[in-house]
Amino acid sequence: MSNIVLSASVRQNLLSLQSTADLLATTQERLATGKKVNTALDNPTNFFTAQGLDNRASDISNLLDGISNGVQVLQAANTGITSLQKLVDSAKSIASQVLQSPTGYSPKSNVTAAAVPGATANNLLGTAYTNNTVTGTVVNNDDTSGAAPITGATKLVGTAGAGSDDLGTTITNGSVLTVDGKTITFSTAQTTSTTDSFGNVTIGIGAGSTLTVQSVLSAIDGITGTGTASTVSGGKLVLSTGTSQDLAISGSGNVLTALGLTAGTTARVPPPLSGKTLTIGATGGGTATSITFGASAGQVSTLNQLNAALAANNLQATIDTTGHLNIVTSNDSASSTIGAIGGTAAASGQPFYGLIAQAPTVDPDSQATRANLVGQYNNVLAQINTTAQDSSYNGVNLLNGDTLKLVFNETGRSTLNIQGVTFNDAGLNLAPLTSGVDFLDSKSANAILTSLNSASTTLRAEASTLGSNLSIVQIRQDFSKNLINVLQTGSSSLTLADTNEEAANSQALSTRQSIAVSALSLANQSQQSVLQLLR
User: What is the four-CA torsion angle of 442, 444, 447, 452, rounded to 10 degrees?
Assistant: First the structure.
């Protein structure tokens, strides 16, 4: 080929045609592949940068499968928790039926106190203060033929003699007998008994007075207001205290000696339970009872107050129309026996003396119902166990203690570890019940309800945790998808060709090629002219 001589114009046109052919080949390749960078020779920087972006997008795309599996694992666990919550609610319903069913014992452990006269729901103490008496010493009359014990008819003054019946010791003038703050004054200035506007009495012991010992007793009773008259028995004055206040006696002169009395205060008889204490040992795990009957602050005088004091010991009280107090275990502790009874209210002669509570009597029908409920409850617990075991996806069970690890980037440094829980009956702090031991009374049912409420709280807390983790995983899943799109878009912007531009280039190069061919043809015409001359 080196022996072939081409003119300068031909060679120039040939080079132009070859260049156009190369450009046209490049353009057609870009149109065929859609890329402006097909190999590292086209643009090393763009080629390797795009390749790195595509590789990262591919790696993240591969991780999306694991993330999608993680979402399903969380969905399976959440579905399991929803079912477990429904099962726990079903168990609550069973325990609630125990509370609504008849008491498993009839009768329950109880004690009934002796009747307290006059006691009512508003006044457990019984009838108000009652009359008491105080007895003096023997006083003789002035019968000189043989002194005899005085009577109510014995005169206060007189002349001693055979057969006379006057006080053996004459009360001196001005002597004062004080009764409940009122005075009874003995005066020789009068012969009758008078009472002033303040309730003070003057008894005449002057010459010719016919007043008797009974006159003194009547004056005393008038002051005390007693409904039980004071009397003379065996020569002794028997004074009634009345019911309005304790009887207080004092005196001046010789009145106390003459009447055989002693200064002092005699208390009325208090209500039967007033001031008495009652203790009851702990019953059914309750707090032992210790109360004092009375009307003062902190004491018990009504049925409502008594029940308030007994409530902490799982007891309650009623009173019938005859004044009998009955104390019985509450439904919460129907299976329990009332604790030991003590205190001064249980002393000899008192209403609670000798009371020992008997154990409750089992009600076969009611206990059979409760035993059936125990069986139903245990069946629900069995379903809780199987539901927790079945809440798995692709071999991972977050309700059976498994751990879910999710990787979010290609380096493995962005991860999320979700620790599973064990939500069988033991994991929820629930346990199978035993017939004849559990659900015997309301207290045992309430204890089970407390455990179930705690289990519900645990399930709700875990559901919230799973929901939070699921939200995180779904956010990362969407982020990964968007990031893949960004990476692929970036890669494409570096390597993809503009087809409109390349099509225009192709058309322009085709035109250029046609012109180059024509130019080459014209360049060859000069050589053909020389050939014609040689011919």
Answer: -90
Q: What is the DSSP-derived secondary structure letter of residue 339?
A: -
Mapped onto helix, strand or coil, the DSSP state of residue 311 is: helix
The pair phi, psi for residue 168, each rounded to 5°, is -65, -35
Q: Which of 433, 432, 372 is nearest to 97 (CA)?
A: 372
State the residue for tokens 């046609």.
Answer: 514
Please compute the mean of the pLDDT values over residues 268-291 and round it to a whole number: 90
The number of distinct structural domains making up the chain is 3
List Cβ neighbours of 473 (8 Å cut-off, separation of 6 or more).
67, 70, 71, 74, 406, 416
**Domain boundary at 233, 266, 299, which?**
266
**Domain of 297?**
110-126+273-346
β partners of residue 496? 35
| Alpha-helical segments (H) within 171-317 | 213-224, 255-259, 303-310
Nearest to 299 by CA among 277, 315, 320: 277
Q: Are 180 and 240 in contact (CB under 8 A)?
A: no
pLDDT band at 287 (very low <50, low <70, confident <90, very high): very high
204 with 158, same domain: the answer is yes
Q: Is the pLDDT of residue 532 over 70?
A: no
State the average pLDDT over residues 498-508: 64
| Token output for 515 | 């012109």
Alpha-carbon distance 90 to 377, whole Å? 9
Q: Exposure string (b/e) for 120-131, b if CB count within 10 Å is 16 or more?
A: eeebbbbeebbe
- Distance between CA atoms of residues 26 and 32, nearest Å: 10
